[in-house]
Automatic annotation (TrEMBL):
One of its GO terms (molecular function) is transcription cis-regulatory region binding. Keywords: DNA-binding, Transcription, Transcription regulation. Belongs to the LysR transcriptional regulatory family. Pfam families: HTH_1, LysR_substrate. The keyword Transcription applies. Residues 1-60 form the HTH lysR-type domain. The keyword Transcription applies. It comes from Candidatus Enterocloster faecavium. This is LysR family transcriptional regulator.
Amino acid sequence: MTQQSIEIFLAVVRTGSISGAAQTFYITQPAVSRHIRDLENEIGCTLFQRGKGIRKISLTEQGESFLALAQRWLTLWRETREISAKTAPRLNLSSVGSISTYILPDVIQRFISEHPEITFHFSNHHSFEAYRYVENGTSNLAFISDDMYYSGVETIPAFREPMVLLASKSYELPDSPVHPAQLDPLQEIRLPWNPEYDVWHDFWFSLTAPARAVIDQMSLLEAFLSWGECWAITPISVANAISLRCAVSVHELQEGPSPRIIYYLKNPSSCPQSVPIFLACLKQSILQLSGMECLL
């Protein structure tokens, strides 16, 4: 007795015909009839009344008795599958965009290849959103750039990286290190990395001088840098990754902003084993990246 044969039996009852059940499961009528015969042979009785002139199939007395058992059997089978799904290893991961774009792809590939038994789900969230999702269990692990206090959620440093200057090749700059006073704010592509960076930026650049563009999508940064003379201040992981794909130059900054710290969030009351496994994969990747300081 299989789950499929039970579902086909119930479909015949529900639709009142072999053809109706065949349409429900997108199989042929002979295939439906074969499943019903196999089921009848297994339980040792006839389930449906058959005969010439009978257009709509009806249950025999034994079939009526079996109907209730079949419905209970299918319910128990589905409940068992739900229990299995809940206990299967799983990781729900979320992250801010810059981490998911330039660091996590290699980590995720390593994690999935080394641990295929763990189901993986990913979503992008801003830092303030991630706290709520970790607290309510929607995310098991989240990477954020803006740390804050949130009851029931632990905020733990993952890695630190310096901020550098990233400029299109056509933008003329002196040799490294470059001082903020040497940069034209009208050619800036500005990204809101974290509150500490905003304080530094407001100190060196006039609030009345608009940037060329203000964005919060990493894919747009690559596009802007390829369009003409412009510059942006980014974490070194972003700069190194973009420099492999675009015609840009990377420079150290004199009196630059503080290094960026990326934190991971977890709920200590509901932290599956998949979380430390993923963090171990992240640590391996961070140790291989130039200019990064692993804090795990």
